[in-house]
Amino acid sequence: MDYIAGKYPDLVPLYDEIYNKHKRSYFEALEVKAEKMAKKYDCAFVDNEMPYGRVPQGHPVIVDYFYHEEIRGTENTGKRNR
Asked: Residue 37 and residue 21: Cα distance in Å, rounded?
């Protein structure tokens, strides 16, 4: 937080919400936007799923890492530890 306060003071409230208060609203909003974008461009949208498999050319897989702390240690099953 000291680094953020020193370099990006305008982001301190956001980082406080995320890391100190453990609120997810910022990431939840990004996840909704990313999922809409994936649908718009006909791309798969997955949670840290590996392997990603073959996809049609021009349709990449969009991977949601917003909840990496829940996915860590799941042996890349793509399922969150909740």
From this structure: 29
Give residue-wise pLDDT tens across range 23-43: 889 988 988 999 999 899 888
Helix (H) / strand (E) containing 68:
helix 68-71
d(CA 25, CA 13): 13
Distance CA 34, CA 58 (A): 17
H or E element at residue 71: helix 68-71
Q: Specify the pTM.
A: 0.62
Let me know: does 80 contact 64? Beta carbons within 8 Å: no
